[in-house]
Each structure stands twice: as C-alpha cells, then as structure tokens.
Design brief:
single chain; 196 residues; 4-stranded antiparallel beta sheet; 9 helices; 4 strands; 15% strand; globular; oxidoreductase activity; oxidoreductase
Length: 196
C-alpha cells in the first residue's frame, strides 16, 4: 500500500492538469462519470459519512433550468460544457450511518446537533467534491470547478423536496487547450506551510 504514484500519474492529476473553461464538442460517456464516482467514493470522510450528492446536468432541458442560477460570467462556459456536475451535500447524511458505519451508533452523535451536522456535511461533502475532481482527471476528463451561482435557486430547482444543499459546480468534458490562460502562480511550501 506504500507505493508511489509515478510522474505520469502526478502530471495527470496535478502538475499538468488545468482548469478548463472551454471544451471540445465531444460528448462525455456516462460510463466515465460512473467510473469517476467509483474512485471518488473511496476517499476518506468522517465516520464514513459520505454526504456528497451529485446531479449531472447534461440535457438541453436541464441546462436551461440551471442557466438562470448562474452568474453572468459563468453562463456561456457552462452552457457549452458537455456536462456540469452540481456538487451537493446531504444534511441528513447521518441517516445512512447505520449502514455506512455499522460498528457504532454514530447516527446518535448527530441527531439534534445542528452545528455538528452542518459542519460535517459541508466539510466532508467539499472533500468528496475534491476527490471527485481528481477522479474525473484520473479517467481522462477535464474539469472547470466554480462557484458563481445562486445556491438557493439551484437547491429549489434541483434538490427540491430533499435534504441536499448545493456547494459548487464542476464543468466536465474534454478540454480545449486553445482556451487556456497561462497557469497562475502557486504558493511555495515556505509561504503556506509550517513544520512545528
């Protein structure tokens, strides 16, 4: 279990991977989305709570529903992307804990504790969204994660009648390198990290 990802894998996930705003006119096979989920779901979450819930917006009808919730600068790129994933988190994730964490009564730790529910759902759902982005890259897809949308509108349209809240969006497809900007700078270890 202690093997190291080779340079090709590191390049695919991090070093050469880019955030895409434009995509080639090439459909995304649902099988790739399923493969990406099967990878992402293996990442760790608190008490294996797995709160992430994803809606894949692909059809013209679904995109038309999403469009009014988008910030103006995100409309064109989202409408042109083959798929947009709405990354959400289930505020009632703890109801699944008897199955997902069966060796303790973890559900009782959350019931009635709104602050713990909110923090756990948001933190772990965001974490799973990050895993999912890397999993998309791992199966050969490119991504454009973003905020810049009206969460309340998205929740009312795509998560009505559920306990799921939206967090962020990921445009997904086969990236068009012609639309890339130069890579932005990154903070060095000593600028962002401390070893105590």
């Amino acid at each position: 279990m202690s093997s190291v990802l080779d340079q090709t894998g590191s390049d695919l996930l991090f070093t050469k991977a880019r955030t895409f705003s434009t995509f080639l006119d090439k459909p995304v096979d649902e099988d790739l989305l399923r493969k990406a989920w099967d990878l992402a779901r293996m990442g760790p979450t608190s008490v294996n709570c797995l709160p992430a819930r994803i809606v894949f917006v692909r059809s013209a009808e679904a995109k038309a529903r999403l469009k009014p919730a988008l910030a103006p600068g995100n409309v064109d790129k989202t409408m042109a992307a083959p798929v947009t994933a709405i990354i959400g988190h289930d505020m009632a994730f703890y109801d699944r804990l008897p199955d997902l964490f069966p060796h303790a009564d973890a559900r009782s730790w959350f019931v009635g504790n709104e602050a713990l529910i909110q923090g756990t759902a948001f933190r772990n759902g965001t974490l799973q969204g990050g895993y999912f982005l890397l999993a998309l890259r791992a199966v050969g897809l490119d991504c454009g994660p973003m905020s810049g949308f009206d969460n309340a509108k998205v929740d009312a349209d795509f998560f009505a009648g559920t306990t799921v809240k939206s967090n962020f969006l990921i445009n997904i497809g086969h990236g068009d390198a012609a639309g890339l900007y130069p890579r932005g700078p990154r903070l060095a270890f000593d600028d962002a990290c401390r070893v105590l």
